[in-house]
């Protein structure tokens, strides 16, 4: 995928210590220009795109969702944009199609991590355009030829194609451990592979699918429920701006699926309607048992929903954080 051009103007909304910082040298080596904003403020971003004629930027999916609802996105000239790279979390296919309709086929998804300093998988513009259904749009893309990926079970044994397991990454850009943290290094590195903590699987065409973070999996009544799948179903409802799904303590099932939802401005919907919507999308046992409407969700400095902070509210009085 050709992202970096000689006339590129890369607008960095996140701090350069974030993943977008990897684009600095690539842009400069091609003779392009970088513009730093350093805060995930979309109103400022819209002004900067217009003023600086930005061609490229990197966003988390949550910021793309907000951009779709932002009035300033229609008030400013954003036509200079040629590439919006997104990553850090899977994007709802329904929201992605809305974004493509609004901004064109300018989206590229990348999957990687600080511990593995190169793109491990990419969903190119061509792949976005070729996706006839939501299946490939929900993937993290095709594997990079310069990164080894294996998907393993809890014992570190590779699983069969199509089976879900933890994603391990190895490359020349993978770090060898954590400074002054031998316990963390021993726990998260093996044979040069970094254990990502992400759960996913590979299909027969070489597309990588992220199911969830290993620690964010909800086990309810003996069934594994992946929060990201439920969030994607919720986010596909026309009234929903963004959601966070967590497991909360339940006397009978161990954990119950629970959702906090931010609605679009001026829109109302009953919790029961959203629950029924999810049941129709992904099945009854994966649907939230309760939906709470909130005005905002906790996010990191780069705009990523902090699902763990949502979960902690419901487990603070428990002796254990798993049931």
Summarize the structure.
The protein is an alpha/beta fold and 323 residues long.
Provide an overview of this structure:
The chain is α/β, with parallel strands linked by helices and 323 residues long. It has helices at 23-29, 42-52, 61-69, 72-75, 93-103, 125-130, 134-137, 182-188, 227-235, 271-282, 307-315; strands at 9-12, 33-36, 56-59, 83-86, 107-113, 116-123, 141-143, 148-152, 165-170, 189-190, 193-202, 207-213, 217-220, 223-226, 240-250, 254-263, 290-293. Strands 1, 2, 3, 4, 5, 6, 7, 8, 9, 10, 11 and 12 form a 12-stranded mixed sheet that branches. A 3-stranded mixed sheet has the order 15-16-17, sandwiched between helices. Strands 13-14 form a two-stranded antiparallel ribbon. The chain is globular, with a radius of gyration of 20 Å.
> What is the percent of helical residues?
25-40%
Distance between the termini: 44 Å
Q: What is the mean predicted local confidence, pLDDT?
A: 91
The H-and-E topology, N to C, reads as: EHEHEHHEHEEHHEEEHEEEEEHEEHEH
- The total of beta strands comes to 17
- Radius of gyration from CA coordinates: 20 Å
Residue ranges: pLDDT <50 for 5 or more in a row?
none
Proportion of strand residues: 25-35%
Shape: globular
Biggest sheet character: 12 strands, mixed
Structural class: alpha/beta
Number of helices: 11
Topology (elements, then pairings):
Elements: E1 9-12, H1 23-29, E2 33-36, H2 42-52, E3 56-59, H3 61-69, H4 72-75, E4 83-86, H5 93-103, E5 107-113, E6 116-123, H6 125-130, H7 134-137, E7 141-143, E8 148-152, E9 165-170, H8 182-188, E10 189-190, E11 193-202, E12 207-213, E13 217-220, E14 223-226, H9 227-235, E15 240-250, E16 254-263, H10 271-282, E17 290-293, H11 307-315
Parallel strand pairs: 1-2, 1-3, 3-4, 4-5, 16-17
Antiparallel strand pairs: 5-6, 6-7, 7-12, 8-9, 9-11, 10-11, 11-12, 13-14, 15-16
